[in-house]
């Protein structure tokens, strides 16, 4: 257990930054489009508050990092790395998340390359879903459950990450489908019953997008 | 006939004496009504936090403890450990078999942390400034942090900056006897690292601890937390801690 070290402050700096290159992406659908699986209330908070904060804080941290780099201040650069990881990871993860969800459709199952790959690597879609669900529900504290593509082994794998650690940077796996299991992602609607949220989220999985991501990963 | 009955009863009683089992945790009731912490923490939030989260940690801990005790592979040392109170077991996690360790750290830690946390809260004062410690505890805080305000600022800052799920703690350090401010992730707590740390104050930074009232605005939760700290209780922990430490 480390003693408290002062983390990179989140005080807002007046908007004079030259390279605020990260921006909050729009959702590809309305805030209430994912109902009844995820409420409009949650989507609004999740996007406008949580994701927006990651973007803002990432820009601030990067600005400071670049400043420190310019001065060859390695101590400050290293000091800022956790903030870049938290906020950069948060930005990456949520940007992917909005894309791999879509309004509820009946009989939602993967098709094409994704369906074949799932069958090959898991035996069946149901088996993959069970493994991903168990892993996601089982995350202790905050984190994500992922279906990722292992480019070296050319196979799909289930993985979990802590906090906002981004899948690819942390494990090398390419994200194909993921589930945010931070409490903010479901609490207002599902309360402590994460399992119900994880079960329901498969109804709004944008398998078409995941298929695209897989095809790209396999190139 | 009477002799036989006496013999049977005696045998039964002797048998009961030797039939022991793992410690079994019970969900403590809150020391106040569910709505007592309004408006800082709503009744709705307190019901969820206590009746769902705390209950779940209790249930799961009991399942693990029972499994450990009845597991045929468990040796006597392990069986003795799981008969101890939870606050002792949590200081001996390294002796637990791998398949139980992580789970008991999480659920047992969750039980212990919430039991303590709920005990150190009370009806809110109208303002933050009204609520402060007095006596030896205040002196110790001033000695270790410069002033009570400085301590509040450090504690609040650490709580705001902390990322993910976890806790911020104020405790008497086992080795140095100084007051230390520190964090733990998930349901870890200071006694898992040194059984002689004396915990004084903590704040639950899991989102479930504040989301129904404050949503993402953790800073508001932290600001208002100062209104609900039961400094009498914390003072008591400090006094007991001083006594305990002077024996070491």
TrEMBL record, chain A:
Cite the entry's keywords alphabetically: Manganese, Metal-binding, Mitochondrion, Oxidoreductase
The enzyme's E.C. designation? 1.15.1.1
Keyword field contains Kinase: no
The UniProt entry, under Gene3D superfamilies, shows:
Fe,Mn superoxide dismutase (SOD) domain, Iron/manganese superoxide dismutase, C-terminal domain
The catalysed reaction is: 2 superoxide + 2 H(+) = H2O2 + O2
Task: Reply yes or no: does the keyword Transcription apply.
Answer: no
Q: Where does this protein hold Mn(2+)?
A: 46, 94, 180, 184
Q: List residues of the Manganese/iron superoxide dismutase N-terminal domain.
A: 21-101
| Residue span(s) of domain Manganese/iron superoxide dismutase C-terminal | 110-210
Query: Which compartments is it annotated to reside in?
Result: Mitochondrion
Cofactor dependence is on: Mn(2+)
Q: Which Gene Ontology cellular component terms are annotated?
A: mitochondrion
- Which molecular-function annotations from GO does this UniProt entry contain? manganese ion binding; superoxide dismutase activity
Highest rank taxon of the organism: Eukaryota
**What does the protein in this record do?**
Destroys radicals which are normally produced within the cells and which are toxic to biological systems.
Q: Could you give the subunit structure recorded for this chain?
A: Homotetramer.
Q: Give the UniProt family note.
A: Belongs to the iron/manganese superoxide dismutase family.
What is the protein name given in its UniProt record? Superoxide dismutase
Q: Which organism is this entry from?
A: Rotaria sordida
From TrEMBL, chain B:
Domain Manganese/iron superoxide dismutase N-terminal positions: 26-121
User: EC?
Assistant: 1.15.1.1
Which Gene Ontology molecular-function terms are recorded? Answer: metal ion binding; superoxide dismutase activity
Establish whether keyword Transferase is in the entry. Answer: no
EC primary class: oxidoreductase
Amino-acid positions noted as binding Mn(2+) in the UniProt annotation, renumbered to this chain: 49, 114, 204, 208
Provide this UniProt record's keywords sorted from A to Z.
Manganese, Metal-binding, Oxidoreductase, Signal
Annotated Manganese/iron superoxide dismutase C-terminal domain ranges read: 135-236
Q: What InterPro entries does the record point to?
A: Mn/Fe_SOD (IPR001189), Mn/Fe_SOD_BS (IPR019833), Mn/Fe_SOD_C (IPR019832), Mn/Fe_SOD_N (IPR019831), Mn/Fe_SOD_N_sf (IPR036324), SOD_C_sf (IPR036314)
Q: Tell me the domain of life.
A: Eukaryota
Catalytic reactions of this protein: 2 superoxide + 2 H(+) = H2O2 + O2
Tell me the leader sequence span: 1-21
This protein's GO cellular component annotations are:
cytoplasm
Q: Which family does it belong to?
A: Belongs to the iron/manganese superoxide dismutase family.
- Tell me the function of this protein: Destroys superoxide anion radicals which are normally produced within the cells and which are toxic to biological systems.
| PANTHER family referenced in this protein's UniProt entry, alphabetically | 37S RIBOSOMAL PROTEIN S26, MITOCHONDRIAL, SMALL RIBOSOMAL SUBUNIT PROTEIN MS42
Q: What is this protein called?
A: Superoxide dismutase
Q: Specify the species.
A: Rotaria sordida
């Amino acid at each position: 257990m480390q003693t408290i070290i002062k983390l990179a402050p989140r005080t807002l700096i007046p908007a004079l930054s030259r390279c605020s290159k990260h921006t909050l992406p729009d959702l590809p659908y309305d805030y209430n489009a994912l109902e009844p699986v995820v409420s409009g209330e949650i989507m609004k908070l999740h996007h406008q508050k949580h994701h927006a904060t990651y973007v803002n804080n990432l820009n601030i941290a990067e600005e400071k990092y670049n400043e420190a780099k310019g001065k060859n201040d390695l101590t400050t650069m290293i000091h800022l790395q956790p903030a870049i990881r938290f906020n950069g990871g948060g930005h990456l993860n949520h940007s992917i998340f909005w894309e791999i969800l879509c309004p509820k459709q009946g009989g939602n199952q993967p098709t094409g390359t994704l369906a074949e790959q799932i069958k090959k690597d898991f035996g069946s879609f149901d088996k993959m879903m069970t493994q991903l669900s168990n892993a996601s529900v089982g995350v202790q504290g905050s984190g994500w459950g992922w279906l990722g593509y292992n480019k070296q082994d050319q196979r799909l794998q289930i993985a979990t990450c802590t906090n906002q650690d981004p899948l690819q940077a942390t494990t090398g796996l390419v994200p194909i489908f993921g589930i945010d299991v931070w409490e903010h992602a479901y609490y207002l609607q599902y309360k402590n019953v994460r399992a119900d949220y994880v079960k329901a989220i498969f109804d709004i999985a944008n398998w078409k997008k995941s298929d695209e991501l897989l095809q790209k990963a396999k190139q | 006939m009477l002799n036989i009955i006496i013999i049977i009863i005696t045998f039964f009683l002797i048998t009961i004496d030797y039939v022991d089992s793992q410690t079994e945790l019970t969900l403590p009731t809150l020391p106040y009504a569910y709505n007592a912490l309004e408006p800082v923490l709503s009744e709705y939030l307190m019901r969820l936090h206590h009746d769902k989260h705390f209950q779940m940690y209790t249930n799961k801990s009991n399942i693990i403890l029972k499994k450990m005790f009845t597991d045929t592979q468990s040796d006597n040392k392990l069986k003795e450990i799981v008969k101890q109170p939870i606050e002792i077991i949590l200081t001996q996690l390294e002796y637990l078999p791998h398949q139980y360790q992580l789970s008991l750290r999480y659920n047992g830690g969750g039980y212990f942390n919430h039991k303590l946390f709920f005990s150190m809260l009370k009806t809110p004062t109208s303002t933050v400034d009204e609520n402060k410690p007095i006596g030896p505890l205040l002196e110790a805080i001033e000695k270790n942090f410069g002033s009570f305000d400085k301590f509040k600022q450090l504690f609040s800052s650490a709580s705001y900056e902390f990322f993910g799920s976890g806790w911020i703690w104020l405790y008497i350090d086992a080795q140095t006897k100084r007051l230390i401010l520190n964090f733990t992730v998930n349901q870890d707590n200071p006694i898992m690292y040194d059984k002689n740390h004396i915990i004084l104050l903590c704040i639950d930074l899991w989102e479930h601890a504040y989301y129904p009232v404050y949503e993402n605005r953790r800073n508001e939760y932290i600001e208002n937390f100062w209104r609900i700290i039961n400094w009498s209780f914390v003072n008591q922990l400090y006094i007991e801690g001083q006594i305990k430490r002077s024996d070491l």
